[in-house]
Amino acid sequence: xxxxxxxxxxxxxSLALALGDGLRAVESVTAAERDLELHPDELLVVxxxxxxxxxxxxxxxxxxxxxPELGVVLLRRRVDVQLLTEALRAGVREVVVPDDLTAVxxxxxxxxxxxxxxxxxxRGPGRAEPSGRLVTVFSAKGGAGKTTISTNLAAALARxxxxxxxxxxxxxxxxxxxxxxxxxxRTLLDVMPMAGQLDEQGLRSVITSGPVxxxxxxxxxxxxxxxxxxxxxxxxxxxxxxxxxxxxxVDTPPALSEPVLAAxxxxxxxxxxxxxxxxxxxxxxxxxxxxxxxxxxSESRLVVLNRADAKVGLTRDDVERTLGAxxxxxxxxxxxxxxSLNRGELLVAQRPEHPFSVAVRSLASAVxxxxxxxxxxxxxxxxxxxxxxxxxRGGAR
Length: 397
Prior knowledge:
The chain is an alpha/beta fold. 40% of the residues lie in helices and 15% in strands.
């Protein structure tokens, strides 16, 4: 079901054709509030362009506190940075132009998938379907050893008996395949024809089996193919992966691209990686500031300092002061790490007592310690902003 708010009936009719059956239409925000009281399970509201933007955003801000699983798509004839900033602060997930019905449908689908993921995570015992945890590994600067940490973290989790899949979202230059010594015969490109109808059987057909019991969903082998992957399918993909695995480790590029933001939106744990150099720390500090602005939960983050024993004139205290955040795990440098990478081996699996492996296993323990809250305990009333709204917008208000 979807609720649209707009007095123009023609708009509701066109959206009904685009979004499918089950759409309800009301003419005002006041009527919408009454409707939502009658439909407590509603997950999507589309606010039309005829509704005053101030009134709309005030209502959204209230809904995001009282109904944190409800997603809102705002339609505006003109879109600019000021509008996007105000909408994000209120809790709107997407702002799109109503004349582009394809964009409206895509935004609605993304919002619904995210709402379903959040609703699923809040179900009580005995009612929730199997739901694996999503762990996103991110570095704001290239060369930090992100893929090495991602794949070895996945191996450490698998070594303890978890069913683990590595999802490579570095769509242009993904290195998961080469790091795990895999041939990318099937990749994320093969998921695209299944969009909207993705299920476990279809997804298993494109997953590549790797070492130590790991599975991987690989990035395309050619950078030019990245543009063929629609980020709108990612919430659906993540939902199916959660049913199939205990943990999904997401490897990312050093950029806040739309696929990366989609992963952040759905993540249970975010591993933020930095190295002992000023550019890396500066970029991570900026990323942390963006997350704070958008109310991405700080309690879900783990800050990891890679090559922490490098003698470069910085200390852990320097790093923590620069970031304004605690370092949770320090990973030492070692020539054995690139050597294992060149052999297509995962050091955690081959040499579990190596200092590098011990540090990564400590990270795996920290990830496991970030349990979801008890479903019987009310969740904090701080809504998470849709991080994807940072990108992919254009036009004038």
